[in-house]
User: Fold Farnesyl diphosphate synthase from Kaistia defluvii.
Amino acid sequence: MVRLDDDFAARLSGAATAVERALDRVLGSNPREGEIARPVRLVEAMRHATLGGGKRLRAFLAIETARMFDADTEGALRVGAALECLHAYSLVHDDLPAMDDDDLRRGRPTVHRAFDEATAILAGDALQTLAFDILADPATDADPLVRSDLVLGLARASGLGGMAGGQMLDLQAETETPDEVAIRRLQAMKTGALIRFSCEAGALLGRASAEDRARIRRFGEIIGLAFQLADDILDETATTEALGKATGKDSSRGKGTLVGLYGVTPVRAMLDDLVLEAEGVLAPFGDRAETLAAAAQFVAIREV
Amino acid sequence: MVRLDDDFAARLSGAATAVERALDRVLGSNPREGEIARPVRLVEAMRHATLGGGKRLRAFLAIETARMFDADTEGALRVGAALECLHAYSLVHDDLPAMDDDDLRRGRPTVHRAFDEATAILAGDALQTLAFDILADPATDADPLVRSDLVLGLARASGLGGMAGGQMLDLQAETETPDEVAIRRLQAMKTGALIRFSCEAGALLGRASAEDRARIRRFGEIIGLAFQLADDILDETATTEALGKATGKDSSRGKGTLVGLYGVTPVRAMLDDLVLEAEGVLAPFGDRAETLAAAAQFVAIREV
Assistant:
């Protein structure tokens, strides 16, 4: 197994810092071409939702995949920022009183607590729009085909048949205890699809061959699954203080997870297998894939 | 002035029917490539929000502008469907209890009344995503530059600096009675930007010259403004029964409109001027612009 060393930690935090800067730029208060004006309160709510930390895992996966295929750094940072906007929108809406009704996110008040419910709905809405705006902007990639493929990929990963659909299944799971097949589908949609697309976006920026893209898609699937299993373990074992958000909510609401179905120990074993599988999928890329392989391990053993 | 004849009525209802069919197709229950599965309840809520009528003004403007520039009909219908998805998303979210708290839309229960609040939030979210999905899909236009320009134009018209930003200003207007400049900016963002882009999208599909595009943008601005003024008059004068939604809400909440500021009669005079201005802007296109000129008149004198 790859060992997580200082180099990996430096890459992870370096990407997070660079993406934070990119987000700060796209969330300025001056209107862009084609915009009329940017209301201050809405800009502030969107900044509250996106800036100020987080692991930036989705951006990191896009950036590292892009780097493996020698893509332009600036474009990769912009794609990373778009992924984080999309992710932040989903968190803002999931936290709403009508959904998961959470007060705390990354140790800070959620957007509807810091502002109000209407502002939180609009901030989430505008963050989704901004994600597509960034991807379609010529500053992201000179090739319009790459841009429209990025938009289409993000739309398929995050809409009705991806993340939003997964959140719908998750709401229904509160009343209809799902089995393993249903849990896996729900998780593939709710969190897996966007993580998979984050990797694929890097391959698109890097003009990877169809074969390499398929490989990266599979890697993205594995890492998405590992992320969710690790999340379910953390929800069961970590404290609210450590995570900066409420824990134990899934099991107390009777939402199905594989940890709930089989317990923590077998799920840890599944995680080990997934890390090995990820390394196998990346093997043909050799040393170039070292950081992505380390990312799989990081996702599996993370403690926050 | 152009007279509204049977030919115009036939074009308007023909476009509405064709767009309804296009929406029915994109809102099927089978997942597309890149999607995992489509949850039935979410599909139903999205269909409730988008199907079953409405004037389809935004789609009509895109389709008629595209036709004037001899663009492909199928692509124009898809763009029309995308605009109606985006518009429907904004209505679903605006109707939520935390926003305008409306029970009725087009004479039917709003999505959060017919389903529930969480489903309405997700249906709106997924309708926004679907709009971008449709525009970025190669079925809409073979040229990826046109597709990414459509995505970028829609994002700028509907995000932070457009429609969503306008809704934010509208919420704030409940407490901070705005003056004419502020009302005009609010309306240009909340409803004007998307109507303007609807026209521009048709010009993009039709590969219009930069000069013609600028002309169409101006026409779109005029028609957006006329639409809003007519809406404000209707809010003041029509009944809930005639409109199929609550009326008199803007004035009772103290929201600023030009009707509130100056009364109905001067606003009707502004509308007449706008229709004349629209005809002037369209004059260089000659007879080809006959339907668009009629559309301006229709928007100004509409009774629902």
